[in-house]
Design a protein that fits this description.
By secondary structure, the protein is mainly beta. It is 11% helix and 36% strand. β9 and β10 form a beta hairpin.
């Protein structure tokens, strides 16, 4: 049957809860609106899931065309409206300049009240890419790899792929078979992606994808059986850049482009 997309995950606000559309369009910069927003602390440093697992319990709803953003909090409170931009902010993401603007509206105050500290909500002027300039607009992991990790962990339940916050989760290939696609062009639905490297993992993967609480020893386990990757240590999943734009739907075929 071949490999197929089984889940799509998009993060309108970096480190907050994921949304799972049935289809996305891959543009040269990835999925427009993915990681559109991000947070800074009082010192101007990235404030994300590594530092605070509670962020994942806030669920965003973002419409890129109407610029309407809604945030739903665990107690059911919902803050929404149309995003307006304030002044440009001189910010860096992963030690690289990230052109951004302050977001005007109720969301920043609501997040601060929930998290309990002063944060700044920013609009990324372009897609907020994690791995630049190598080209990290697309990420992918297989269910086979997740099953292998679960076996290594001795987990009683399946390892939820949402821990890894990959754009595409696929099924139909063996454990870590996707690693062999690094350096190759891969067809995903109507689009083609060239994969540039593997993704070294951090504490975020140890957190439950709904509660943010650390509950699995993913890093210790990866260090035991997958310490070194081709491009990064503690590798799990791969990242790449769009070669040919196109639509991708859940159920679409995935595999090396042999055309």
């Amino acid at each position: 049957m071949g490999a197929r997309v089984v889940r799509i995950s998009v993060a309108p606000v970096k480190s907050l809860g994921l949304v799972h559309p049935d289809k996305v369009t891959l543009e040269p910069g990835g999925v427009t609106g993915n990681r559109r927003f991000w947070l800074l602390d009082e010192q101007g440093a990235l404030y994300g899931g590594k530092r605070d697992g509670a962020l994942v319990t806030i669920h965003p709803d973002w419409d890129e065309s109407t610029r309407r953003l809604a945030l739903t909090f665990p107690d059911g409170a919902r803050v929404e409206g149309v995003v307006e931009l304030g002044d440009a902010v001189d910010a860096e993401l992963y030690r690289l300049p990230r052109p951004s603007h302050r977001v005007i509206g109720p969301w920043e105050e609501a997040i601060c009240g929930y998290i309990g500290r002063r944060l700044t909500l920013l609009w990324a002027d372009d897609s907020a890419i994690d791995r630049t300039p190598e080209g990290g607009t697309v990420s992918l992991v297989s269910r086979g790899s997740l099953e292998c990790l679960g076996d290594e962990l001795g987990a009683a339940e399946e390892v939820d792929g949402r821990r890894f916050r990959m754009l595409f989760e696929i099924d139909g290939v063996g454990a870590h078979e996707e690693d062999g696609w690094i350096g190759a062009e891969v067809r995903i639905g109507e689009a083609t992606v060239v994969f540039n490297g593997d993704i070294g993992r951090c504490i975020v993967t140890s957190r439950h994808p709904e509660t943010g609480v650390v509950d699995l020893a993913t890093l210790v386990t990866l260090a035991a059986y997958r310490r070194e990757g081709r491009t990064e240590d503690l590798p799990f999943g791969i990242y790449g850049a769009v070669v040919t734009p196109g639509r991708v739907r859940v159920g679409d075929l995935v595999g090396p482009d042999r055309a």
